[in-house]
Amino acid sequence: MLRLNRMTDYAIVVLGQMAQEAGRVRTAAALAEATGVPVPTVSKLLKQMAAVSLISAHRGAKGGYALDRPAAAVTVTEIIQALEGPIALTACVDGAEECCEVEHSCPMRGNWNRVNRAIRSALDGVTLADMVDPEGMFPVRTPAPTLHPTTVGAAE
Questions:
Q1: What is the mean pLDDT of residues 102-123?
Q2: For a tag on the chain, would you pick the N or C end, based on fewer CB atoms within 10 A?
Q3: pTM score, whole prediction
Q4: 56-58 and 64-66: which strand pairing?
C-alpha cells in the first residue's frame, strides 16, 4: 500500500491555511491555532518546508513564515518531496534513496521507472489549490437531460 506519512498530511493542512492569504507572514503558534495541528508539529513542518524554499522564513519581531506564491503554483509533488524525499515506489527506480540487492539480475529492472513517472505525473497535476478546493478539481457535473418516454416517439 502506498501511504504518505502523517506529517505530509499535516503539511497540506498547514499550507492550505497559509494559502488563504498567500504572502502573509504567520507564526507557528498562529498556524497551529488555526489548523488544530500541535505547535511542535507545525514548527517542525515549517522548518522543513522553508529549508527547501517551499515557503519563506522571516526573522525578527514580526517574523514567521509565508507562502509566497499562489496555491495553484504549488504541486502536491513538491509538498511530498519536501517532507518525504524523492518519490520512488521501489528501490530500483530513478531517485530511490536505497538500493536493491538483486538489481543487476532483476528482470523488472528499469520497468518500475515507467510506473514511477506515471504516479509523479499524476501528482504534478494536482496543486495545493486543488486540495484546498476539491470542487475545482472534481467539479460537480450536471446530469444529462433525460427524455421522457412519451416525447421520444412523438416527433416520428
A1: 80
A2: N
A3: 0.76
A4: antiparallel
